[in-house]
Design a protein that fits this description.
Helices cover 42% and strands 14% of the residues. It is α/β, with parallel strands linked by helices. It is globular, with a radius of gyration of 18 Å.
Length: 306
């Protein structure tokens, strides 16, 4: 049996205000470890550690959560910014996550490497596409026009941001090496975010898996596929051999972070691309039922991911 970690994404609810209660819940539900999500406050992180209920297998940058001086949460600070002050601030938050992982003994850091533009929110054209998808209006000229506009906007500005992301990654690798922590670059939920499949080659050039690799998020790949941006198979077909970790969750429509088994993802290709990994993280949101959270373990065993 491969170890399964439960992300503290599920802990963002009142009954788990005390992180120790969440840690005990995860252990009782059958999980083997915890991942600290970027929405986790420092006090909750400390409570999880002090509980000694489960080990922390990975930390999701930029954890713990903090408010930047301009009012933004630290997860909105852009590691791919071409504004050097912004990029340096993002580096500081990410390095703090690495330091926490080093103290905890976690050997994986999940990294959101930023986006094309310093606006972390999706392009307004993509937002409209998502509203149209939810209303069943995807077969229309307008939907196609919006998608082409999103692709064009990203392409026009991508090069400089990807180069900035590469600089940030190398700095984070340098910070992580003394702790022997590997960085997992996660595929993202919005089209303007970095990286896309073909960008990994540049970003990971010269790095080995002990330093940095690919982190596959099942739901993110599925949602971008359903919107017509990137084929769901492109990620693992190209990057399976460089994968260092994975977030497993299911999707209904374009709503992700559902418990595996509570959606309509085709798990066959996921299993084929990720079965070589030694462990997995379930990234389930706080709206899912306890029954689904517990049942996900057996579901994954049934599809060959346990």
């Amino acid at each position: 049996m491969k170890p399964l970690a439960l992300s503290t994404m599920f802990a963002q609810q009142q009954r788990f205000e005390d992180g120790a209660a969440f840690a005990r819940y995860a252990a009782e539900a059958g999980y083997d470890a915890i991942e600290i999500s970027h929405s986790t406050r420092e006090d909750k992180l400390r409570q999880i550690l002090d509980s000694h209920a489960l080990p922390v297998a990975s930390v999701h940058q930029p954890a713990p959560w903090a408010r930047h001086h301009d009012g933004r949460g630290n997860s909105h600070i852009n590691l791919a910014s071409i504004d050097e002050d912004e990029r340096r601030a993002a580096i500081e938050y990410a390095t703090a996550s690495i330091d926490w992982a080093g103290r905890i003994g976690a050997k994986r850091i999940v990294v959101h490497l930023g986006q094309v533009s310093d606006v972390s929110e999706q392009f307004e054209e993509e937002r409209e596409m998502r509203r149209m998808f939810d209303s069943g209006s995807v077969v229309s000229d307008r939907f196609v026009e919006l998608r082409e506009a999103v692709i064009g906007r990203r392409k026009a500005d991508a090069e400089a941001h990807v180069e900035a992301a590469r600089r940030s990654l190398l700095e984070l690798v340098h910070a992580a090496e003394p702790h022997r922590i590997a960085i997992g670059l996660e595929n993202r939920y919005h089209y303007h975010e970095i990286p896309q499949p073909e960008e990994y080659e540049l970003l990971l050039d010269g790095l080995v898996g002990e330093q940095a690799g690919y982190w596959h998020d099942v739901g993110h790949a599925e949602v971008l596929h359903r919107l017509g941006f990137i084929d769901r198979h492109a990620w693992l077909d190209r990057l399976s051999s460089r994968a260092v970790g994975a977030h497993l969750h299911d999707v209904s429509g374009i709503g992700d972070h559902r418990a595996p088994g509570d959606g309509d993802v085709d798990w066959g290709y996921v299993t084929a691309g990720l079965k070589h990994l030694p462990s997995y993280t379930l990234e389930i949101n706080q709206h899912q039922s306890d029954e689904r959270v517990r049942g996900a373990i057996g579901f994954l065993e049934g599809v060959g991911l346990r």
